[in-house]
Design goal:
It contains 3 helices and no strands. With 165 residues, the protein is an all-alpha fold. The longest helix is centred in the N-terminal third of the chain and has 66 residues. The chain is flat. The N and C termini lie far apart (107 Å).
Amino acid sequence: MNDLFLMIFVPAVVGCVAGFCIAKLSKANKEFAIIKQEMAMFRRDMDETRKGIARECADELRTKLNSLDSYQLSRIVDKLDEIYNLMPTEKQTEDLANAIFKEIERTQSRIYEWREYGEENHNSVMNRLHNQHDTILDLIEGMVNVMNKMSKGRVIGFRPERLSK
């Protein structure tokens, strides 16, 4: 009896769970279809709005252009021609971009060279400065001694014993 119950109960539960999942998936698919439909309607509305705005702008521009006299129109056309002539062509733009990129690469390589040079020579410069430190202190001490002898006194505020070697 227990086995018979399990043989009937298990497929029924599995069937119910499968049916529930299928129903949920079906509902989700319907919701996705509704969302897709709403998105398509939104796109259509946006296109219609865009076309309407373009039509209104074109009508307004046409009205304003019709109200201008030939002299004003010729001035506008001349200004537009000037602007068009000042604009670089696609080839010129590409050439300018290539030149800028080459200059950037050259500058970047110079920076790397200077950095390498600085790193290489930093230690030697620091060693030279350290070696010159004692010589500079000796020269200063000698100058102070000469000034003391010449002035028959000490230089105010300077004490040679404070110099460290």
